[in-house]
């Protein structure tokens, strides 16, 4: 049985498959390509202490989730400048949780962000205070599968790794409520001057495919301070990707 966890008084905003706010002046532009989303259910009480102050676990039918998300970051660009072709393109694998703040904004909280380019890792850690780590990584597309590998370099822990292979199926005509909940996240929460900052994003609606998990060997979830997954994941999804815009981190109520 899942242990109870305290909730925030504001009603969470609805889960919407389309971004609720269009960013007129994005801070960053990029593309997220060849994404695989693997999710396991987790007790909200087990992760509540890992979220920034001012947020609690976001839940779907009383359950929250830990996600392992592997993809290719492509051509990260600042403001309206063209995306950078080399330093702005690299494999990435994230361990993330689901959060809601006192204003009802739903988001994600990153526990680790493995990336293969050292310069973006340093910029992410120093400029945005995000948990980026430098790893040796690859994304390989086969005849009917997509494979992702990651082996931690710095700052560790040594031996943290993942290997995922998925077989995408047909495109989903209408995602379920849970599938929207796990993918339609329009911002991230992060510590921000002693409270929770919110960094919004917008992008077109996800093109989603259900996928078969052919291989999964990983310890990134446990290395991020979470209970190691047991059993099969509750959801495995694939997307060819979307163009994305990210805004500036803000503290306080939403600005409409």
From TrEMBL:
<dbReference type="Pfam" id="PF09844">
    <property type="entry name" value="DUF2071"/>
</dbReference>
<dbReference type="InterPro" id="IPR023375">
    <property type="entry name" value="ADC_dom_sf"/>
</dbReference>
<dbReference type="InterPro" id="IPR018644">
    <property type="entry name" value="DUF2071"/>
</dbReference>
<protein>
    <submittedName>
        <fullName>DUF2071 domain-containing protein</fullName>
    </submittedName>
</protein>
């Amino acid at each position: 049985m899942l242990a109870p966890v305290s909730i925030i008084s504001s009603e969470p905003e609805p889960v919407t498959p389309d971004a609720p706010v269009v960013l007129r002046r994005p801070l960053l532009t990029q593309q997220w390509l060849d994404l695989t989303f693997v999710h396991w259910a987790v007790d909200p009480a087990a992760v509540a202490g890992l979220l920034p102050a001012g947020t609690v676990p976001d839940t779907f039918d009383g359950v929250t989730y830990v996600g392992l998300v592997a993809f290719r970051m492509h051509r990260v660009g600042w403001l309206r400048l063209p995306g950078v072709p080399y330093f702005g393109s690299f494999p990435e694998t994230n361990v993330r949780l689901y959060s809601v703040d006192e204003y009802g904004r739903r988001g994600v909280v990153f526990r680790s962000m493995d990336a293969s380019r050292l310069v973006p890792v340093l910029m992410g850690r120093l400029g945005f205070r995000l948990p980026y780590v430098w790893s040796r990584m690859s994304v390989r597309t086969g005849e009917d599968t997509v494979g992702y590998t990651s082996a931690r370099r710095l700052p560790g822990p040594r031996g943290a790794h993942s290997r995922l292979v998925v077989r995408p199926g047909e495109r989903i005509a209408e995602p379920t409520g849970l599938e929207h909940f796990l993918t339609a996240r329009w911002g991230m929460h992060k510590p921000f001057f002693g409270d929770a900052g919110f960094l919004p994003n917008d992008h077109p609606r996800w093109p989603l495919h259900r996928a078969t998990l052919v291989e999964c060997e990983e310890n990134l979830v446990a290395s991020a301070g979470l209970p190691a997954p047991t059993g099969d994941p509750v959801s495995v999804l694939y997307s060819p990707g979307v163009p994305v815009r990210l805004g500036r981190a803000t503290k306080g109520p939403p600005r409409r």
